[in-house]
């Protein structure tokens, strides 16, 4: 398409069911708000139900709230069971929630917090909901990554949980790289079915609560220079919304802000690092993720078109 893709380009979403994780604030809230205002039935999947209810009250449309703590496999399984019971079909699953640059911590299941929340939690949720998504023509799984997937980023199979040494920036890079590799491998497996696509997006540098855990050397300059370095959450949500709703989207794409450096701007297809496209690593990460979470996906081939 020509021109800038804006909120006004979101097609009519009436009749569609969208689940947005981490939707009580920031990018997730704006994503949910815009989808609901276009007519989608939106589920805010959030850890804090009270915050979720307050967020839902600020959105016009069909909005419900679902408890989901991505740091707990028990919570993920419980939420998936609730969502499956409430929704025979799911059109959009938007894996938005995340943590960034946290001090060394583990999830309830012993996973490093950033890898466990950002990647393993969403991997498990997707696998548990996929049979509600697969039969729906035009359905999509959108996973939010980051330009941080390029920063000191690798999948450290010899120390996935950062038990030997910990770098909050390195762990974030690994988690966001994993989000992309999961998307690309999922698309390979979905391609033969022809109904569902997997797409990734990133918000650039958006002014949200995520920066609160950044090292002071990064957090302070970003806070002071926010008007120059960041964009509002409404703009940061647009790449996710384009990935979720633009009729021209194809599986395995990656959307981000269109200005130089992908920091700000209107959404367009962007490129990810060469390493994110390594098929052997994608497949190994998938196998390890199934082993760690105990979640296996519905039978799908891994022989689709290249991402």
TrEMBL record:
A UniProt-annotated Pfam family: adh_short
InterPro entries in UniProt: NAD(P)-bd_dom_sf, SDR_fam
Residue segments, region Disordered: 249-281
Record-linked SUPFAM superfamilies: NAD(P)-binding Rossmann-fold domains (SSF51735)
Keywords: Oxidoreductase
Top-rank lineage group of the source organism: Bacteria
Keyword Repeat: no
NCBIfam families reported in the protein's UniProt record: PRK05854.1, PRK06197.1
Sequence similarity: Belongs to the short-chain dehydrogenases/reductases (SDR) family.
Name this protein carries in UniProt: SDR family NAD(P)-dependent oxidoreductase
Species the sequence originates in: Streptomyces poriferorum
């Amino acid at each position: 398409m020509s021109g800038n893709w804006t909120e006004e380009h979101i097609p009519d979403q009436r009749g569609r069911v969208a689940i947005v994780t981490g939707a009580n604030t920031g990018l997730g809230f704006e994503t949910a708000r815009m989808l609901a205002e276009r007519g989608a039935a939106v589920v805010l999947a959030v850890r804090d139900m009270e915050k979720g209810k307050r967020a839902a009250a600020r959105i016009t449309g069909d909005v419900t709230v679902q408890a989901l703590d991505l740091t707990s496999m028990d919570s993920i399984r419980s939420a998936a069971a609730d969502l499956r019971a409430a929704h025979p079909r799911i059109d959009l699953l938007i894996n938005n929630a995340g943590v960034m640059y946290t001090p060394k911590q583990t999830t309830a299941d012993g996973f490093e917090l950033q890898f466990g929340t950002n990647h393993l939690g969403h991997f498990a949720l997707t696998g548990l909901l996929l049979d509600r998504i697969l039969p729906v023509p035009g359905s999509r799984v959108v996973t939010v990554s980051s330009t941080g997937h390029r920063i000191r980023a690798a999948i450290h199979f010899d120390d996935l949980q950062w038990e030997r040494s910990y770098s909050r920036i390195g762990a974030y890079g690994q988690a966001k790289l994993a989000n992309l590799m999961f998307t690309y491998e999922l698309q390979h497996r979905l391609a033969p079915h022809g109904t569902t696509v997997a797409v990734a997006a990133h918000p650039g540098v958006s002014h949200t609560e995520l920066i609160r855990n950044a090292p002071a050397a990064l957090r302070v300059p970003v806070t002071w220079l926010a008007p120059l370095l960041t964009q509002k959450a409404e703009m940061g949500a647009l790449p996710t919304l384009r990935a979720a709703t633009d009729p021209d989207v194809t599986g395995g794409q990656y959307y981000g802000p269109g200005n130089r450096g992908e920091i700000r701007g209107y959404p367009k297809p962007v490129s990810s690092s060469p390493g994110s496209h390594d098929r052997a690593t994608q497949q190994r990460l998938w196998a390890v993720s199934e082993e760690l979470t105990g979640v296996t996906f519905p039978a799908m081939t891994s022989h689709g078109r290249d991402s």
